[in-house]
Amino acid sequence: MTDTPDNAAAAWPIAAAMLQFPGTLRDGTAITDAGPDHWRRLLRRVVLAGFDNVEIPSAWLRLGDLSATALGDFGAVVSELGLGVPGITVVRESIIHPAQGSQNLAFSHRTIDAAAELGVPVVCLGLHDALAPAQRDVLWFWTQAPPPKPSEPETYDLAVRGYRELAEHAANVGVELSLELYEDTYLGTASDAVRFVTDIGHPAVGLNPDLGNLVRRQGPVEDWRDILPAVVPYTNYWHVKNYLRMEHENGTVFTAPATMATGVINYRDAVTMALDAGYRGAFVVEHYGGDGLGVGAMSRDYLRGLLSEELALR
Amino acid sequence: MTDTPDNAAAAWPIAAAMLQFPGTLRDGTAITDAGPDHWRRLLRRVVLAGFDNVEIPSAWLRLGDLSATALGDFGAVVSELGLGVPGITVVRESIIHPAQGSQNLAFSHRTIDAAAELGVPVVCLGLHDALAPAQRDVLWFWTQAPPPKPSEPETYDLAVRGYRELAEHAANVGVELSLELYEDTYLGTASDAVRFVTDIGHPAVGLNPDLGNLVRRQGPVEDWRDILPAVVPYTNYWHVKNYLRMEHENGTVFTAPATMATGVINYRDAVTMALDAGYRGAFVVEHYGGDGLGVGAMSRDYLRGLLSEELALR
Amino acid sequence: MTDTPDNAAAAWPIAAAMLQFPGTLRDGTAITDAGPDHWRRLLRRVVLAGFDNVEIPSAWLRLGDLSATALGDFGAVVSELGLGVPGITVVRESIIHPAQGSQNLAFSHRTIDAAAELGVPVVCLGLHDALAPAQRDVLWFWTQAPPPKPSEPETYDLAVRGYRELAEHAANVGVELSLELYEDTYLGTASDAVRFVTDIGHPAVGLNPDLGNLVRRQGPVEDWRDILPAVVPYTNYWHVKNYLRMEHENGTVFTAPATMATGVINYRDAVTMALDAGYRGAFVVEHYGGDGLGVGAMSRDYLRGLLSEELALR
After folding, report:
1. Among residues B191, C20, C241, C274, which one has the fewest Cβ atoms lying within 10 Å of its Cβ?
2. What is the mean pLDDT of the segment spanning A123-146?
């Protein structure tokens, strides 16, 4: 295969997200415990939707909790299906949670080992935690304010030390960590995220500039054109999703999930910025709302087209 | 043709809706009276948009009012165009309307005879009536409250008896009836619809789970994930359309028509649920707003893809 | 190539808009001064997005300010890229601006000469001016009221005389002018626009029925179905774009850019109306918001499909 822009774009890892896949079978069995036949059956949906890469979220399958045998089975399933796994994501399990922090930290460590075992290059982590009840009771969880970020310096230091410890582990086994931007956390603004990743100060830690997490807030937001240039030098993994924003002169804002091409983030420009800054990592196409997998497939095709056009210009 | 998932999906009847087709020619002639040359000319738009099936609504052409000769002409036109007709719909002509109820009932009877004559398997009926003036004066009629459903038990009994009478007729001529879910009618919630179809209690009567009619309300709504499982055992015909919903923490809700893939209803999951429950009937792709026929064509292609993926998993 | 509907649709000029292309290079150099290598590099994006036609806006490159040599260089670039230029647009540089009016008029004259030199058939002009600061500070500029249209009859007369003078010049060099509909100007309603173009009364002046400029207002708007029939007899150029509109019974309205197929304007019907009225001019596919060039490419393909279907019916 000659290295044309089309070929290079076709080879770029663009992974399905599994946001709409529940963590249990209908009978209540955890996917983690369901075994290879169920994993194969469920992941075939991703393959049939045209994906050759998939991100494995801990909300669906807790790879860090699998036995060595089960992890081998999982590796065989994805291999048999022809699926690459550019990343494992552990979110809404914060390592600074007042009660579950230390067990979340331990699970993050185990997930890094699982990634190393499977040859997955990135583990994505975040400081946002389980949805509050008020967030679970509404159509779109981001329309309710999340808990504020902790104000005590000790907690900040705990987070820095925790990620540094995880990074050291990750580096030792050949894995990178990527911290996901998310509102009302230490990763909630461009400057906070840069400060946080700089304070961690470890070469195995980068950022996941999930701009959608920030622009969907139904209130004032930072302009994504200011966020991305600030964080792109640290970017080593990328959740892409987009939102419609409507604003009224009385200050009211409404948002809703949109396709990657039609939301407020201009991903043509965003991809150009990232490639200019040397980004060569994976993309994960997320979408809340209706058919997330189907819209993800549209985003994948759109993104593939963008990459092909962008690479042809270089 | 071997029975691959792609072939089975390609053969599944997915019909164009004709929501944007006016009931009169520019000179004021009713389409019903316009004759085969006009019918052919207008239906060619549907064919050129890539459809091989179409639903005929009484708001466009009143098949129940055609003479035997004219009905034969109509059958020849659709046959010549290669169009299947999986359903005829008579809506906004309620059989319990205080003044027009009995003539609407009579027209429903005549439409069943027309369906039988044309070999159309389903007549879709509904309890919602002509739009109120306040609904006609706004951009989206569902942003204004419809009249409340009648509260007198006699009216409910009249509806049950009327549909039972129509069902008896339909069964005698080999036609099924499908009652369309619609807000503020006896078919306005999952439990009301199930109660109503159960009270009719006739094997020739099923439901059309037009979820879009319910989720577009600019106020609180039932979750479609609760509605569909309740009504799917009775489903024998299906209007599919989708909506964007935006909700504010102050309680304000805005909705607008969306493409089938991008609205709040996850049709991938909905189709899975329906096929699991044994649904093998037709789909009609509706869309209000801009180019309903064009968006319907997108929905048709999207739905065809979903069916192909879903059938490959079985 | 035989003259099938598909071929005729494929040959119809549908131009990219360059709304998202900034007027300067990163180092601050004006595109106008950047020279042919930069013009070629930037216009290649348009070609890679699949366009064979492009509209040149003065906000990107001021063709009227180029030397004869530079203009020749520009013509060579577009020719080499295989791009047609069906129109040059000069907007937000009103000829009745209190301070800059006369220099804007002079620039419009020079742009007409540049169009003639390049063989561009249409120059598009408008009475809307530079965005107000309050409009520049918000996500969507149209959510803030623009300045009202001038009320003094002398200003109206000045506008009529100015355009008549430009029209006379244009006619002499084989160019047409097209005036763009825009809210709160003499071209802000169907009746105002017809009156204004009639008062100018010159065969070289027509209208650009940019319906999106009117329907996106977050307040009451004229129905596009009333606007287009009124202005279509004067139409000689056409900016097409679409918007989502959400309306609440409390009177609040929200709008956002939408794809051409999914917004409130039914472009299938709009194109039918225009072709019935004899429209054979170019289309320019505009889109604000995210990836305007990418959404424009989708609009181009959608519009090409519509034209093919519509021509097949004739």
Report:
1. B191
2. 94
